[in-house]
Amino acid sequence: MQINTQASKQREISTSPVIDIELLALDLNRCARCVGTLDHIEKAIDIIRPVLEVMEAQVNVRKNVIESEEQARQYQFAASPTVRINGKDIAFETLESECESCTDLCGCDEGTSCRVWQYRGEEYMEAPVGLVVESILRDILDSSREYIGETPVYSGVPENLRRFFRSKSDARPAVESCCEPSRKAACYDASQPEMCGCH
Question: pTM of this prediction?
Answer without folding.
Answer: 0.69
